[in-house]
Amino acid sequence: MREDWMEIDYKEVVNKVSTNNKKLKQKEYLQKGAYPVIDQGQELIGGYTDDETRLLDCALPAIVFGDHTKIVKLINFKFAPGADGTKVLEPKKFVLPKYLSYLTQILVFKIKDKGYARHYQHIEKQSFPIAPLPEQRAIVSKIEQVFSELDNGIANLKAAQDKLEIYRQAVLKKAFEGGFTELGKWESRKLGDIIKISSGNGLTKANRNDEGQYLVYGGNGVTGRHDDFMFEEQQLIIGRVGVHCGNTHITEPKCWVTDNAFVVTFDKEEITIKCLYYLIFSLRLNQYASSTAQPVISGGKVYPVEFLFPPKEIQGNLVDEIESRLSVCDNILANIEEGLEKSEALRQSILKQAFEGKLLSEEELEACRAAPDWEPAEKLLERIKNEDKVKSKKVNHA
C-alpha cells in the first residue's frame, strides 16, 4: 500500500439501501417491460417490470452485490431490485463508484465460497486501501484501458472457440454422410430402431458424497464422486435437461448417472459405443428439446430422428477418421480454454496490482499529485467521517 493511502473498513464507505416492498420474485419478471430488474444473477438485467412503484430510490451509480452468487454489478440507471440475495450499496461521496466496484471484486475473490450462503457479511468486515481522489480516477482509467485490451483478446478466443465447434459439427456431418469412407451399404434408420433411453438412478446432491471413489455423471459430464456405483461398465449418456440438454458423453466404468441424463442402451454387436457416440453427437439433439425456460428432451423427440446407419465393417475406420481430424481441433480448444483461464487470472492480477498501488507509473502518480483536488487519503477519511456526522445530526433533528 502506498504511504499516502489509508486503510478503511468496507462498511464505512457504503450506505446499504433498503429494498423492502420493492423486491420482485423471479416468477414476477417480464421478458419485456418498461423498467429493468437487477438481481444477483450472472446477466446484467434479470428481467423487466411495468410496475413503477418497484423502482428503487437510490443514488446512481449503485453497486448491486449478489449475497449468494458474489456477482458484482455497477448500475447507472433506474431499476427494480430482484428478490432474495440482492444487496444494493451506495458508495459514499469521496469514493468513486467504479473504484469501489473494482475493489469489491477483489474482496469477493479473497473470501471463501460458502455455497448458497450469505457472503456480504464477510465483505463488509474487510478493510481496504483508499487512495486520494485523483489516484482513484487514474486507477479506474488504467484498469478500464487494460481490461479493454484483455476483453478484445477474450472475444477473439471465444470467436475461435465458436468456429472450432462449427468445424467439429461439419466433420461429424460429413462423416455420417459417407464423406470419409466408401459409402457402402448405409441404411436409413431412426434412433428408436437402435437405442433405448432411460433416466439415471436418481442420485442428487442431497444424497451424494463428493469424497467417494466412483464418478457421478450428469448432463454436463462428470459432476462429482460417490462411494457406491450403479454401472460396472462405461455408459453412453445424453443430457436430458437444462443447458446441457442433448450433450453426449461416454462415462468411465463404475459410475452413477443422475436424473439429468439419459442412459443409452443399444446392441453392441450392431454398433460400437464410440461410433454411436459420434453419430448421436452429429445429430445435434438439443434442437429437439422443448422451448420452455428449462429445455427438456424426451424419448418421444429422440426416437423419430432419422440418420444414415454405417455398416459395421467400416465403423472402426470411420471413428479413426473422425478422431484424426478432431484431435487437432481438441488440441486447439485445450489451448483456447487455457488462454481463457489465464485471462481470468490476469484480470485478478491487474486488480490486485491496482489496489496495492503498483498499477500506475511514477509519471502517472506525479500527474495525480498535481491535480487541484489532490489530498492525502487521511484527509479523505476525515471528510467521510464528517459527512457521516452531518447526516447523523440531520436524522436526529428530524
What does this structure look like?
38% of the residues lie in helices and 19% in strands. The protein has helices at residues 97-110, 120-123, 133-175, 191-194, 273-282, 299-302, 312-354, 362-369, 377-397; strands at residues 6-9, 14-17, 35-38, 47-49, 62-66, 72-75, 80-81, 86-91, 127-130, 187-190, 195-199, 214-218, 221-226, 236-239, 248-250, 255-257, 261-266, 306-309. The chain has a 4-stranded antiparallel sheet with strand order 2-8-5-6, with helices on one face. It has a 4-stranded antiparallel sheet with strand order 11-17-14-15. It has a 3-stranded mixed sheet with strand order 4-3-7, with no helix packed on it. The longest helix has 43 residues, at 133-175. The protein starts with 5 loop residues before the first strand and ends with a helix. Mean pLDDT is 87; it is low at 205-209.
Question: What is this structure, in a nutshell?
Answer:
With 398 residues, the protein is of the alpha+beta class. 38% of the residues lie in helices and 19% in strands.
Q: What is the overall shape?
A: elongated
Radius of gyration, CA atoms, in whole angstroms: 28 Å
Strand order within the widest beta sheet: 2-8-5-6
DSSP, total strands: 18
In CATH, the topology of the largest domain is named Adenine-n6-DNA-methyltransferase TaqI, Chain A, domain 2
Q: Which percent range describes the beta-strand content?
A: 15-25%
Tell me the name of the CATH homologous superfamily of the largest domain.
DNA methylase specificity domains
Assigned CATH class of the largest domain: Alpha Beta
Q: N- to C-terminal separation?
A: 41 Å
Number of domains: 3
Oligomer: single chain
- Helix-and-strand structural type: alpha+beta
Order of helices and strands: EEEEEEEEHHEHEHEEEEEEEHHEHHH
Would you tell me the overall average pLDDT? Answer: 87
| Total helical elements | 9
Helix content: 25-40%
**pLDDT < 50 runs, ≥5 residues:** 205-209
Largest pleated sheet: 4 strands, antiparallel
The CATH architecture assignment of the largest domain turns out to be: Alpha-Beta Complex
